[in-house]
Amino acid sequence: MSAIKKFSHYIDGKWITPKGYEGELIVNPATEEVIGELVYGTKDETRLAISVAKETFKKWSQVSIPKRGRYLFELHHLLLENKEVLANLITLENGKSFSESMGEVQRGIENVEHAASIVNLMMGDSLANAASDIEVTNYRYPLGVVGCITPFNFPMMVPFWLFPMAIATGNTVVLKPSEKTPLLIEKMMTLIEKTGIPNGVVNVVNGSHEVVNELLENPEIKAVSFVGSKKAGEYVYKKATANLKRVQVMAGANNHVIILKDANLDKAVFELINASFGSAGERCMAAAVIAVENDIADLFVAKYTSAAKKLVLGNGLKEGVFLGPVIRKEAKERIFAAIQTGVEEGASLLLDGRKKGLNTSGYFIGPTIFDHVTSSMSIWEQELFAPIACITRINSLKEGVDLANSSEFANGACLFTNNTSAVRYFREKIDAGMLGINLGVPAPLAWFAFSGWKNSFFGDLHANGKDAVEFYTHRKVMTARYAEDDL
Ligand code: NAD
């Protein structure tokens, strides 16, 4: 029998065998086969990574900005060459379909494209004639060591939201990926090695709470980027700010969709099938709650349910599969219980995904649709993170917007309509940071900030876009007198 694969940390360009005692098995969620074993990193291992990153920062921050950009071009090239390999690893460890994994890899690559244009992004502003003989100039500098903590649902895209821009701006990084999905990151480090990016610029410590706590407490960590659930995000934000760190927390979500009676229903169905059930609903931009105007609600429900019934469930590596498994047995059990709660709360269960998930190996749940959901139900209020869509019926756009605005979350929101005045009303009144018009909840491209509001985000500067440059740098503003009298 071959020995079980063990995952290592990656510190200072070396693969380090973890010394801890606790850990977990890494399982392919489609087959329940064990891929390997991940031993949680310890405080000491995290401290080692931080001290290496601190030492490396002295030199890396002095590497010219165009040269840092060129390293990212090299990474871009290697990612393009390895697209299929990377997508395969994502499906293997996360379960999403191969085509979704390819989409995720593409999103990661776009983040590297954004970071590679760092020269333009780092330029400061100056004012030649601020006062008589006075010039003012703004210079950007990196912060130091940045801690990045990421979730399981996008093993590639989310780490790529963070570390490329952190290092392009001149920082060094200690990354703690999700303890459930270490495969993609392991491959990523082998690619980073090939770019020539110096050892110690990007370090990975696998693990769980102990690693996170060290990143939140260690005075050498100058900024923390976190992506994950609201519960963990709140903890991270409070602890890191209490330790006087710069923090950005992209947290949980429960996204709202509004469909007006003038919308093209077939197009709305097409978009929302993907947005509700793609990645088995394990997306912070999943279309979880769909509010439909009464006049067209029955027709929408019929078309949507019929389309959902046709979705192919299975191992994401197989051709034609749309819906893969959820991440773990515990997630499946939690979702089964949530469906039961929805029934007990009085929602109409039109499509019960539990049936397709019974007696299967792999953590499968079919698409699930509830109709007549109300905002007093827990299935409306909570982030289910599941292939579950909750339909609610509304009389007007205003009612739909007010309903969505009563949610504690405000990540994405969508409107389906051909009425431009409705679009404007929606844009002005909805409490959400990322809007879609006639599109399933769209995650903004790398060049725009990932802009959650309310309990979907804690902090002020978001990931991606120009915010990322602001978050990972601080400024010096120099005011100088250059007087003609001194000539
Ligand atoms: P999670 O919060 O369980 O884990 C995220 C990270 O935090 C992991 O690295 C984990 O090890 C760590 N962590 C978890 N609990 C912790 C604790 N108590 N103390 C210290 N560290 C802890 O999230 P997940 O289940 O991996 O991912 C799903 C969640 O992520 C969903 O809520 C989803 O909405 C959210 N998410 C949000 C965004 C966004 O941009 N807003 C993007 C992707 C995912």
UniProtKB/TrEMBL annotation:
GO terms for molecular function: methylmalonate-semialdehyde dehydrogenase (acylating, NAD) activity. The keyword Ribonucleoprotein does not apply. GO terms for biological process: L-valine catabolic process; thymine catabolic process. Keywords: NAD, Oxidoreductase. It is an enzyme of class 1 (oxidoreductase). Residues 24-477 form the Aldehyde dehydrogenase domain. Pfam families: Aldedh (PF00171). InterPro entries: Ald_DH/histidinol_DH, Ald_DH_C, Ald_DH_CS_CYS, Ald_DH_N, Aldehyde_DH_dom, MeMal-semiAld_DH. PROSITE patterns: ALDEHYDE_DEHYDR_CYS (PS00070). Its EC number is 1.2.1.27. The keyword Hydrolase does not apply. This is methylmalonate-semialdehyde dehydrogenase (CoA acylating). It comes from Vagococcus intermedius.
